[in-house]
Specification:
SCO1/SenC; SCO family protein; about 230 residues; signal; metal-binding; disordered N terminus; copper; 6 helices; alpha/beta; 7 strands; about 15% strand; 7-stranded mixed beta sheet; globular; Glutaredoxin
Length: about 230
């Protein structure tokens, strides 16, 4: 009963849905209330597109064999090659965006900035934002976007690269789209408001609505919880 109760509370907090706002030319500064502790002893693990939580003990044999994000090779706004080695022994937050987005991306960038600011002096926490229009978002374009929105190099990586690789990562490994039962191809546009929390062992430990203040506050709390795991 206790585990079921915790599951309901956790699921409610991270699967909140909100309507898409219209795009704005400026990002607004907002304060968010952050809880100091997570509501569960260990964050759940997620291993498929249904995002069914698995309650696994960190360090166990089950944890070691659970779904992990595979290696990748992309390029960030500074022209540096980014792979899983960049995130070795790091906790990181993932999203998917594009610099010319006419809709939700500015709100997502604003909220991801809160994550950057909350952990700006913590080298253990990084951010990884994938362009879903890599043919348009060149290194120089990403750099211009990074400078415009005060994105810190080596803390928050905006990446471009092979479109097939980025879309495969998003759909088959991060599971960022919720269209269950509707397979998509490379010509189907990938766009989502979801943020994902990845632990030091490359496991997905949370999915959050990148447009929702309460969800962002929970994400910050959960990052702090992950830092305390053995």
């Amino acid at each position: 009963m206790k585990k079921l109760y915790l599951l309901k509370i956790y699921s409610l907090s991270i699967f909140l849905l909100v309507c898409f706002p219209s795009c704005k030319t400026e990002l607004k500064k907002e304060n968010i209330k952050v809880e100091e502790t997570s509501r569960v002893e260990y964050l759940p693990y997620f291993g498929d597109e249904s995002f069914t939580p698995h309650w696994i003990t960190p360090g166990s044999a089950e944890e070691k064999s659970f779904h992990k994000i595979p290696d990748f090779k992309l390029t960030n706004q500074s022209g540096a090659t980014i792979t899983q080695n960049t995130f070795a022994e790091k906790i990181y937050v993932v999203d998917f965006f594009f610099t010319s987005c006419p809709g939700i991306c500015l709100k997502m960038t604003n909220n991801m900035s809160k994550i950057q600011n909350a952990f700006k002096n913590d080298s253990e926490v990084l951010i990884l934002s994938h362009s879903v229009t890599p043919n348009i978002d060149s290194v120089s374009t990403l750099k211009t976007y990074a400078d415009k929105y005060d994105i810190t190099d080596n803390k928050w990586h905006l990446v471009t690269g092979n479109k097939m690789e980025i879309y495969t990562l998003g759909r088959d490994h991060y599971f960022v789209e919720n269209d269950l039962g509707e397979p998509k191809g490379i010509d189907d546009f990938l766009h989502t408001e979801n943020f994902l929390l990845i632990d030091k062992n490359k496991h997905i430990r949370g999915i959050y609505n990148g447009l929702n203040r309460s969800s962002i506050a929970q994400l910050i709390t959960d990052i702090k919880a992950l830092k305390k795991e053995i």
